[in-house]
Specification:
Layout lengths: L4 H7 L13 H9 L13 H11 L6 E3 L2 E3 L17 E7 L4 H13 L1 E4 L2 E4 L2 E5 L5 H14 L3 E5 L3 H8 L8 E5 L4 H11 L3 E4 L3 H13 L5 E4 L5 H16 L11 E2 L8 H13 L4 E4 L4 H14 L12 E5 L8 E5 L2 H14 L3 E6 L6 H6 L5 H11 L9 E4 L7 H7 L4 E4 L7 H7 L3
Parallel strand pairs: 3-6, 3-12, 6-7, 7-8, 8-9, 9-10, 11-12, 14-15, 16-17
Antiparallel strand pairs: 1-2, 4-5, 13-15
Helix pairs in contact: 1-2, 5-6, 6-7, 10-11, 12-16, 14-15
């Protein structure tokens, strides 16, 4: 960004109205300077100031919206520098050459393969609909079918602007990504994108051609652009992703300052190799990856990888506070308590599940800190745990009054006994790996 927070502040209305969601105009200006807010959030900025601020407040990688899905908006090369903003979109490909059964199976997988992890719903984001025969009517019917079957962002794929228009007639309200403007059809596809106010992808034979296309489209007034470098080998596609991101971030080279789309589905002969390529593209730096199919053994690892990469490194991953039943516990099942640091939760819950012993796991909000760190910070201590247990509602689910605390927090047992005088406090194992053996011998 070319302007400091103070320079931006001078162009804002300085009313401190809070309509942008930030208490003061100065704080909003600082967020704009850091790439953490959008100028559109301020409803009172003058047109003159808006023109000056638009380019200054734009992130190095321009944001693009495909329906409700967002990509781009990135400001750094490495997430530890700040954070990555919009997670890579995962798309599944359907074509008008596929039998209906294959299309249906992919759409069913798109709807069914959803995973609840750390209080987040992990799922694929987009469906790419491709015309292979150039028949506008057939393509339009397929787009209509997909639009009616799934509530998702759409990518319409054809070399023909007429075919894209036929698909767009059934999905204009979804604001799909039009793929792709090439050297041969750029004018026609750009006009379609302008008329429909849809984002458009460019595909070049090489990087020079990509640059020519983005400059041409941006000169026509198109702001939402996605780049396909055209490479279909993993090595070259990987190099292109890095080159595009570095040009945008390090050199502020606007013709390459757009999110990218990669096609692992066109780079591999089998699904597992395709998944490995997709994992590389998620890490470096594709805005969208398109898969030939959605299968749990490939999709779930990609979703978890994406979640980890796009989690703010300055904010620990936290599980939602609450009562977690494991292995169908009843009123006699033991009760264990831990913090809401996600890694702690997954390790502890995994060991309990593996023990096959029914148990209740109380997860206490400690701002995403581990047991020892939360104890040292005064957040996982006797009085706090006692208050949490009383308010948790666990007493409505069990007949006994016994609770197991982590072995590393043994020092709090005395304080917890004072807070829960009618409860039996048991010190559990220090290492999660010992939980199964402990539970098999434990008596509430």
């Amino acid at each position: 960004m070319g302007m400091t927070g103070i320079e931006i502040y001078k162009l804002l209305p300085q009313t401190n109205c809070g309509d942008c969601g930030v208490p003061t105009c100065l704080a909003f200006a600082m967020k704009l300077a850091a790439g953490q807010a959008e100028l559109a959030k301020c409803p009172h900025v003058s047109e003159t100031s808006r023109e000056k601020l638009d380019s200054a407040s734009a992130p190095p990688v321009m944001p693009v919206s495909i329906g409700a899905f967002k990509t781009g908006g990135e400001t750094v090369l490495f997430r530890h520098e700040k954070t990555f903003v919009n997670p890579t979109g995962i798309a599944v490909l359907v074509t008008d050459a596929m039998p209906d059964a294959d299309v249906d199976s992919r759409l069913k997988a798109f709807a069914d393969l959803r995973y609840d992890r750390v209080g987040m719903l992990l799922a694929a984001d987009l469906v790419a609909v491709k015309s292979t025969g150039g028949d506008a009517a057939v393509f339009g019917n397929l787009v209509a079918k997909v639009s009616g079957a799934v509530d998702a962002g759409l990518i319409l794929m054809s070399d023909s602007a007429d075919v894209l228009a036929a698909g767009l007639a059934h999905a204009a309200d979804r604001k799909p990504l039009l793929y792709a403007a090439t050297k041969a059809n750029a004018d026609a596809v750009a006009k379609l994108a302008l008329d429909s106010k849809c984002p458009v992808a460019v595909k070049g034979a090489n990087m020079d051609e990509v640059i020519e296309l983005t400059q041409k489209l941006s000169g026509m007034g198109i702001k939402e652009i996605v780049i396909d470098s055209g490479s279909r080998s993993m090595k070259k596609a990987f190099e292109d992703q890095i080159a595009i991101r570095r040009a945008a971030i390090k050199s502020a080279f606007r013709p390459l300052g757009y999110p990218t789309i990669a096609f692992p589905c066109e780079m591999a002969d089998n699904f597992m190799e395709e998944t490995l390529i997709a994992s590389t593209m998620v890490a470096k730096y594709a805005g969208i990856v398109v898969l030939s199919d959605l299968r749990g053994e490939g999709l779930f690892p990609l979703l978890v990888q994406r979640m980890n990469i796009f989690t703010d490194p300055q904010r620990p991953m936290a599980t939602e506070q609450g009562i977690y039943p494991i292995n169908n516990p009843d009123e006699n099942a033991p009760v264990m308590v831990t913090t809401n640091f996600s890694l702690t939760y997954f390790i502890v819950s995994g060991e309990i599940e593996g023990s096959r012993v029914p148990a209740w796991l109380l997860v206490m909000d400690c701002e995403g800190l581990s047991v020892l760190t939360a104890w040292a910070a005064g957040k996982f201590v006797g009085d706090a745990i006692g208050a949490f247990v009383k308010k948790s509602g666990i007493t409505d689910k069990i007949k006994h009054r016994s609770i197991v605390i982590p072995g590393y927090s043994a020092a709090i047992s005395g304080d917890l006994e004072e807070q829960l005088p009618d409860w039996k406090i048991t010190i559990g194992p220090r290492e999660a790996a010992h939980i199964p053996a402990f539970l098999k011998q434990y008596q509430a």
